[in-house]
Amino acid sequence: LADVRLWATLPPGLEEITLRELASVFGDECKSRAMKDRGKVYFQVSRDNFLKVKKMRSVDNLFVFVERLPDLCKDEENIKEKLETLPSRLNWSNALEEWQEFSGYANPVNKLKQTTDDNPSQEGPNETPVTSCSDVKPPRFRVTCNRSGRQHTFSSPQAAAYFGSGIDDYFDWRVNLSEPDIEVVLNISGDSATVGIALTKESLHKRDMKHFGVMTLRSTIAHGLLSLADISPGDIVCDPMCGSGAISIEAAVCWPNCYHLCGDNSEVAVGKARANSKEQDSRQCGSIDVVQWDVCSLPLRTASLDVIVTDMPFGKRSGPKSHNRTLYPRAFEEMARVCRPAISRCVVLIQDHKVMMRIIRGSRWWKQRSVLAVNVGGIAASVYVLSRTINAYCDS
To answer: Low-confidence residues of the chain, pLDDT below 50?
Structure first.
């Protein structure tokens, strides 16, 4: 069986985390053959292992390739006709089979519209025409077009409409923009275009979360932060500014053999974190304790934590940015107290780089291991990976 060609979208800046996950799920060969772009990873898996992509935790959306057309938009004259006739020139068979296997959609989809004359409709490569059956409900579909690279003479909605019209003529599917069974994706970059089918109906970043706050962290970003913390079985993992609990819930699901602790100073946030934690009770995951506390005065023993992973306030939706100048130093001093010297790791997502660099330069307790530039909802942010130094904590 031929390999399944896929691409995934993910939080920009965390591509290496997805490559690492590919090696964990599919093996080092899959990782070595994968290609990355900002916010995207392209990879191939064997058909036998295809459904293992459902195990991936670092990606927002998954797509299966139909075909890549390197020169589709090189000459934009008659682009409307090109896009309307494009569906009949593509080989849809493998991608549709893989989409059906992933989604569980049972009705036939790979068939052509019934012909009314003696000559059959133009067939795509390697496809056999099948007469539409009146008793089979056709799938609903929509086309999403994304353009980049240069200015085009057409808009994304226009390209989606032209291509969608061709799909309707070719397959006799029914357009439904709000509740489609199949989402066909047309990505145009400069002269080239890629056609694919979305495997995920909605972004995976909301998984496991039922109760959302104003600043709920995406579960896929939470997974990326946790993956950088080198978590081992038996570790005590803490998020001292947990919000709705996304980091601790992701940690409990993926690292069930650890003890997970989180808290926040907001009573509303703690309530949402507890509600989200309770939603996981029926699953086999690690236990989570949720506490209301002040990150600058944690009710924990000195040198009691192995790992801290947290999303620091950006100063965008929760208080002014100026508060970070006093909050960050006090929080990092208290986190240094409760972490184990020479052993503990700390991974933080922050937006205030100047304050963070000042803390690291002047700290006896933290050593910077690495920094990743990430994009969080359009905001340029950074992930700092820190190690606790060997210096024992003492009040400064």
So the answer is: 115-122, 128-132
